[in-house]
Specification:
The chain has helices spanning about 40-60, 60-80, 80-90, 95-115, 155-165, 180-190, 205-215, 225-240, 265-275, 295-310, 330-345, 375-380, 395-405, 420-430, 465-470, and strands at about 5, 5-10, 10-15, 20-25, 25-35, 120-125, 130-140, 140-145, 170-175, 200, 220-225, 245-250, 255-260, 290, 345-350, 355, 365, 365-370, 385-395, 410-415, 435, 455, 470-480. It folds into 2 domains: about 5-250, Aldehyde Dehydrogenase, Chain A, domain 1 (3-Layer(aba) Sandwich); about 255-435, 3-Layer(aba) Sandwich (Aldehyde Dehydrogenase, Chain A, domain 2). It has about 475 residues and is an alpha/beta fold. The protein binds nicotinamide-adenine-dinucleotide. Nicotinamide-adenine-dinucleotide binds near residues 175, 210 and 224. Pfam families: Aldedh. Belongs to the aldehyde dehydrogenase family. This is Aldehyde dehydrogenase.
């Protein structure tokens, strides 16, 4: 069985000077594999390969691009249990969640395959009446893609697929914590028929990502990760010559508002799923629960009853609801924030303890704080773990104000049976995605995804809108009569 995995550069799997252990967070004794650990040298090689492949790929037939993405989708779907097993082993989400994510990646590949056939343009009459104007979508060149660890196959799929469908070539740097799913996705796409150098993989950490962000031959960079890293990537992309087109998908501190008239069970379900499933490690997690006075104590009591029943354990074990935290560093960060919350004067109403299980892993009991005021760090900063805060609001107006009191703006949800408040919230919540009587997490792949303020920078991802980032327009005039 293969245990060492190299980069993919110019259609070949290449080895490297340094290697990285891919460790299972459910059982830290288990090494999933040894993966190449690259730096700027590997990035330079990968960019050169992508640059050489661009002229032919950018002129390739849309049908060819479609067929390759479609074949890759079919293989990902057919192997979703095996790939889900790998994903759950390296990231720590439960097996059903991981298989679901792999299925999503397959759907994204299939949807985007068809996008290759739908690359559209527009036609105008010249205003002087003597010309016709064609506005066409053009690929950008070499696109750099840098991804986080929390969706190890879905995020790479929803960036790589539209980049390729539009005729770009790609250098992809996944998170160093989850190289296994990334390697498999690239392997599948290569075998689906991509010409050499069209898609390149460099596994590595910040140094490799930074080299990509500053590389002069990279025309555009799509990044998903934290706000702090995103800022650095953005600065490097703008400082490089020529300046890069940038898409930065960043953090969130997403509010779920629960009003007095909400269906209690539905609201608790939305909160439980949104705040704690996938170990709370979702950019769209409902980490702030803003609850009005008339329902708050009932809501908190019921949420705690549900939290008590959750099974926290090995990601692959039957019946596990919540897997481990992804890494020792993230686990420590979550615990630190739980401490900060207590010191700030918030009341820890449930959980927050490190847990021991049969296997050594980064297990953490989900934590719920109440008595949280808007200035507290646990109410303002993204924790990115199974930690949620309940904030008190007198009425809808105060709930909306609290909801919008954030530097982020990714998703926002409201649970209410009041049409007036639901509609008002839909229009006035400061977020790129708004949900009414639904959890803040989860989005279909055929609609645009992205946030406001410090949650996003640049064009939206997913759906048909994804092509806005991966293409530019060319405006071409032709004289009508000579
Ligand atoms: P991170 O910022 O630590 O790392 C993201 C990626 O950037 C990784 O591949 C990492 O190796 C790379 N990187 C690190 N330093 C770099 C540098 N100086 N230059 C270039 N690249 C560098 O984020 P993470 O911990 O992997 O992911 C969690 C974050 O991602 C959370 O903030 C979460 O909200 C966010 N996220 C956002 C979305 C979204 O769509 N908005 C989706 C998923 C996750």
């Amino acid at each position: 069985m293969k245990t060492r995995f190299g980069h993919w550069i110019g259609g070949e799997e290449v080895t490297t000077r340094s290697w990285l252990d891919n460790i299972n967070p459910s059982d830290t004794r288990e090494r999933i594999g040894e993966y190449a650990f690259g730096d700027a040298t590997d990035v330079n090689d990968a960019v050169a390969a992508a640059r050489a492949a661009f002229p032919a790929w950018s002129k390739s037939a849309p049908q060819l691009r479609h067929d390759i993405l479609r074949r890759a989708s079919d293989e990902v779907f057919a192997r979703k249990t095996e790939l889900g097993h790998l994903l759950a082993s390296e990231e720590g989400k439960t097996l059903p969640e991981a298989i679901g994510e792999v299925g999503r990646a397959a759907q994204v590949l299939a949807f985007t395959a068809a996008e290759a056939l739908r690359l559209d343009g527009r036609k105008f009459a010249g205003l002087a009446g003597d010309s016709e104007i064609d506005v066409t979508r053009e690929p950008l060149g070499v696109v750099g893609i840098v991804t986080p660890w929390n969706f190890p196959i879905a995020i790479p799929a929803w960036k790589i697929a539209p980049a390729l469908a539009a005729g770009n070539t790609v250098v992809f740097k996944p998170s160093e914590l989850v190289p296994g799913s990334a390697w498999m996705l690239v392997d599948i796409l290569q075998r689906a028929g991509l010409p050499k150098g069209v898609l390149n993989l460099v596994i590595g950490a910040g140094a490799a990502g930074g080299a990509l962000a500053g590389h002069a031959d990279v025309a555009a960079l799509s990044f998903t990760g934290s706000l702090d890293t995103g800022r650095k990537v953005g600065m490097a992309g703008i400082a490089s010559t020529p300046m890069k087109k940038l898409q930065l998908e960043l953090g969130g501190k997403n509010p779920l508002v629960v009003l007095d008239d909400a269906d209690l069970e539905l609201a608790v379900e939305c909160a439980l799923n949104g705040a704690f499933y996938s170990t709370g490690q979702r950019c769209t997690a409902s980490s702030r629960l803003i609850v009005t006075d008339g329902i708050r104590e009932r809501f908190v009591a019921r949420l705690i009853e549900r939290l008590e029943r959750l099974k926290i354990g090995h990601a692959l074990a039957d019946g596990t609801d919540i897997g481990p935290v992804v890494s020792a560093a993230q686990w420590q960060k979550d615990l630190d924030y739980i401490d900060i919350g207590k010191r700030e004067g918030a009341r820890l109403r449930f959980g927050g303890a490190a847990l021991e299980r049969a296997t050594p892993g980064h297990y953490l009991q989900p934590a719920l704080f109440t008595d949280v005021t808007p200035g507290m760090r646990i109410a303002r900063e993204e924790i990115f773990g199974p930690v949620a805060v309940v904030q008190a609001a007198r009425d809808y107006d105060e709930a909306l104000a609290l909801s919008n009191d954030t530097e982020f703006g990714l998703t926002a949800g409201i649970c209410t049976n009041n049409l007036k408040h639901a509609n008002h919230f839909r229009r006035n919540a400061h977020a790129g995605v708004v949900k009414v009587n639904l959890g803040t997490s989860g989005l279909d792949y055929h609609v645009p995804f992205g946030g406001l303020s410090n949650s996003s920078y640049g064009p939206r991802e997913q759906g048909h809108d994804a092509l806005d980032f991966y293409t530019t327009t060319k405006t071409a005039y032709t004289r009508c009569e000579l």
